[in-house]
What does this fold into?
Amino acid sequence: MKRDAVFARDDHRCVYCGEGPPEVELTVDHVEPRRKGGDNSSGNLVTACEGCNRSKGGLPAWAWLRDRTPERTRFLARAPYVWPRLRDAVREAARLHG
Ligand SMILES: [Zn+2]
It folds into this structure.
């Protein structure tokens, strides 16, 4: 999926913090990192601001979102198109962590 299409689908806002330009610069984030087997399909790509993307680093979204309730809630609400197994991983990691 092309970068501009990802941004347009997400209304030009970060799916984690909700911010958009001009406050923040947008990037494309892999929910499941490429080096962990994530691909460039529409269900694995989300719009993230530079700050959230940098903070998340090489972590899968479920690990980064585990202790970040507002960002996790926003992600689940704003990215219904993310592959179900990845959304389940996000919910499951938070549940197991308590
Ligand atoms: Zn953000």
Q: What stands out?
A: The chain is about 45% helix and 10% strand. The mean pLDDT is 96. The two ends are 35 Å apart (CA to CA).
